[in-house]
Amino acid sequence: MGKIFGFILLWRLLGNPFLAILVLLVIVYLLDRRFVGVFPSLTKPFKRMGQVSRLRTQISMNPNDVSSKHELARLLIERKKDAEAQKLLESIASQSEDSAEFWDDLGTVYVRQGDIQKGEAYILKALEINPRVKYGRPYLRLADVYKNSDRDKAVEYVHRFQEIQSSSCEGYYLLGMMYKALDRQAEAKAAFQESINIYRSLPKYKKRQERKWAVLSMMRK
């Protein structure tokens, strides 16, 4: 009702229904970015391009800069430039033997390029070094790989993730999405409900960072 009233008011003020819709959408977007975070950031891709450019320059000036190469590889993974990311990661392999983040990133690019066996081995190596690396998300990545070819294995990885993410709205939302992909609707619904329950029990100062996942859980449920 409030949205309809707001639209009518904007229509009268602006004298154009299409302009009123546009302004209303902008307001909704700004409110979401401020208080929820469901909508993607419009500025993030431009910031990422700037970071990529800065890191390329830095690496060209110092080819032995391991941290910059790894950071650039991560940004390239986000942009789905897996082949380039793989070359960067492999160039710093000898200096990154003990880094769980490194092995997970390298495994991810191998998986996405179709080398499942090698990619899985690298991701499991990351989890062996640190079972909580990236908050357990590598387990869900592996579950996604096997959700159609080996559901038992996919469920096993889901359960391992669940052991780590026992009190996170985001964790239960991701768990629910994986159960949906496995066509286990009752368990997906229960996971979304648990995400909502956790959000309701959080102190006020923590609700802002978890609100996005609670809202998405409500929508999915």
Describe this structure in words.
- With 221 residues, the protein is an all-alpha fold.
- It folds into two domains: 67 residues, Serine Threonine Protein Phosphatase 5, Tetratricopeptide repeat (Alpha Horseshoe), CATH 1.25.40.10; 91 residues, Serine Threonine Protein Phosphatase 5, Tetratricopeptide repeat (Alpha Horseshoe), CATH 1.25.40.
- It is built from twelve helices and no strands.
- The two termini are 23 Å apart.
The CATH architecture name of the largest domain reads Alpha Horseshoe
Q: Describe the main β-sheet briefly.
A: none
Instruction: Give unreliable regions as ranges.
Output: none
Derived structural class: mainly alpha
DSSP, total strands: 0
Distance between the termini: 23 Å
Strand content: under 5%
CATH fold naming of the largest domain: Serine Threonine Protein Phosphatase 5, Tetratricopeptide repeat
Shape descriptor reads globular
Our count of domains comes out at 2
Radius of gyration: 21 Å
Helical stretch count?
12
Q: Please report the first level of CATH classification, the CATH class of the largest domain.
A: Mainly Alpha
| SSE order, one letter for each helix or strand | HHHHHHHHHHHH
